[in-house]
Amino acid sequence: MKSGYTTGRWSNGLAEWTQGDTAFLSVAFTWRLDDAYMRALWYRAQGYRVRAGGPGIFTRKHYLADVAEIGGEIPDAIARHNPMATFASRGCPVGCWFCIVPKMEGRDFTLLPEFEPRPVLCDNNLSALPADYQSHIVQRYRAAGVPLLDANSGFEPATFDDEVYERWAPINRGPWRFGYDETTEGAQVQRVMQMLRARDMRPHRIRVYVMIGAEPFAACMDRIRRVIDWGGEPHCQPFIKLNALHKKPNVRHDWTPGLLTDVARWANRRYWKYTDFADYQRSGAAARAQGHDDLFEGAAA
Ligand code: SF4
Predict the structure, then answer these.
(1) Between the CA of residue 145 and those of 111, 117, 140, 149, 165, what are the distances in Å?
(2) Is the pLDDT confidence value at 138 over 60?
(3) Rounded distance, CA 147 to CA 117, Å?
(4) Ligand 1 atom at minimum distance from 156 CA
(5) Is residue 99 in contact with ligand 1, taking CB distance under 6 Å?
(6) What confidence category does residue 283 fall into, taking pLDDT thresholds of 50, 70 and 90?
(7) Over pLDDT 70: what percentage of the chain?
(8) What string of H, E and C letters represents the secondary structure of the chain?
(9) Up-side HSE of residue 295: CA atoms within 13 Å toward CB?
(10) CATH number, domain 82-297, options 3.80.30, 1.10.3470, 1.10.3680, 3.30.565
(11) Whose CA is nearest to atom 1 of ligand 1?
(12) What is the pLDDT of residues 186-199, one digit of tens each?
């Protein structure tokens, strides 16, 4: 095993670089579009031709159209966002309504068999890939001696079974990630968590993405509690519209912006280990009222 591998650092959604007389902007999130626009203007003022692409462009293709050429393939742009990251496939056949992947990359997988193994594997849905291609990815990591430190989009409960686990277990050194975004997924998520717990997997290695805000508060909190009760750790992601120009959650049902923030903090900073949500909210409100946000923020992080 080679040493010195890490999970790297992410670009915070906007990567830029130059090659010859061309400046490239890769925009991961729509809320970085205003920054990308300013960077494009700056590069043009320096005499560069500007090209722009990425998921952040997809739902607002015209946003940069007057300052950059949009689209076209830029191989391995992910490495500009994080040099430790890679993709071995694109696309996803599942088609979740809230996800940009099938719309942008298609519902048929595009396989990239010559991919370069790096510690962060960003494929959208590893367990739904053809079994022989999953084995190919695993084999390529082993042959290269590169550790898989984080499969950061991970596995999908519907297709994550014993066979998938046995295939990836020899190389996966990071958490097992999968989503529990809607109440209807409960039985599948429980089955996967039982499978992992039966193998004595520690809770911090069972990392479950829990989308909050698209269902009412009680339903989202129920999913969070189930993840904890079933022996994993929830990672809450407030629902943000695919074309949002600001990194602000879409507020629906009985949610408020503050409630979304509080739930995400309570879950993602693991405050649930020390206090239930109601007490957390009360202590947080008291700390804020006394101007002690800093104390409150650092309490159990
Ligand atoms: S399974 Fe994951 S990658 Fe596929 S559509 Fe759903 S959220 Fe997107």
Answers:
(1) 21, 9, 8, 12, 20
(2) yes
(3) 9
(4) 1
(5) yes
(6) confident
(7) 93
(8) CCCCCCCCCCCCCEEEEEECCEEEEEECCHHHHHHHHHHHHHHHHCCCEEEEECHHHHCCCCCCCCCCEECCCCCCCHHHHCCCEECCEECCCCCCCCCCHHHHHCCCCEECCCCCCCCEECCCCHHHCCHHHHHHHHHHHHHHCCCECEECCCECHHHCCHHHHHHHCCCECCCEEEECCCHHHHHHHHHHHHHHHHCCCCHHHEEEEEEECCCCHHHHHHHHHHHHHCCCEEEEEECCCCCCCCCCCCCCCCCCHHHHHHHHHHHHCCHHHCCCHHHHHHHHHHHHHCCCHHHHHCCCC
(9) 10
(10) 3.80.30
(11) 94
(12) 999 999 999 999 99
Is residue 191 within 8 Å of 158, Cβ to Cβ?
Answer: no
Tell me the one-letter amino acid at 232.
G
Q: Tens digit of pLDDT for each residue in 209-228? A: 999 999 999 999 999 999 99
- Provide the token pair at 216: 């009412």
Ligand 1: which of 90, 125, 177 to mutate, judged by most atoms within 8 Å of the beta carbon? 125
From 94, 108, 188, mutation site for ligand 1 pocket: most ligand atoms within 8 A of C-beta: 94
Confidence (pLDDT) at 73: 81
Contact of 267 with 273, CB cutoff 8 Å? no
Per-domain residue ranges of the chain: 14-70, 82-297
Q: Which of 167, 109, 157 is nearest to 137 (CA)?
A: 167
